[in-house]
Predict the 3D structure of the following.
Amino acid sequence: MMSSPRTITLAFTGASGMPYGLRLLECLLAADARVYLLYSPAAQVVARQELDLTLPTQPHAAAAFFAERYRAKPGQLTVFGREDWLAPIASGSNPSDAMAICPCSMGTAGAIAGGLADNLIERAADVMLKERRPLVLVPRETPLSAIHLENMLKLARAGAVILPPSPGFYGHPQSIDELIDFVIARILDQLGVSHALGPRWGAVGPRPPFIQRA
Ligand SMILES: Cc1cc2nc3c(=O)[nH]c(=O)nc-3n(C[C@H](O)[C@H](O)[C@H](O)COP(=O)(O)O)c2cc1C
């Protein structure tokens, strides 16, 4: 059994795939991880467009919203603003144990590859790379241009895990939720967070209990 890291930074950016981001947040909180949540203005647009969900702009309102939605424990979830340079994750002296950007836009991937660090998402990712901590990017675009591919190669060479949301079909998924959880399971594995999302290839014994959805 893996031991779960204490603190995970999770960022939503404006790529399609917001159901992945929300499910990842739900599973991290269910796994008792402490979560620092960040999201871009474009992520708010995508959440509204894909899920009819309004993500609060003010960090305190956002924390209250998600804490209630996913029954977070007091103090378990903190939301930081876009330019909150006083957040711990803005500095290499206090990074989280791991970070995921899910979904990750090509814009944010390019900005991190270019070292811009122009907002807290980009800076926190920059810190993870320089401190050699796990950074998982879940990029979504199709087709991919040579610019996208070069940026992702650069990021992989700098230590990031490029984890496209590409669910396998060998488990005979019966629903969109199962397709989503296939990807979330792989992300949690990379973050080192224990989970029981679906059976593992070659595993014997009963199917593990599912993490219920809110
Ligand atoms: C509904 C919607 C879907 C989008 N899907 C994608 C996508 O799949 N991949 C991508 O790279 N950009 C996508 N974009 C464009 C990005 O949101 C845009 O490039 C934005 O500047 C990214 O900013 P961010 O990285 O700060 O979130 C989408 C935008 C909208 C409104």
User: Anything to note?
Assistant: The CA atoms of residues 66 and 169 lie 31 Å apart. The chain has a mean pLDDT of 94. The first helix runs from residue 18 to 30.
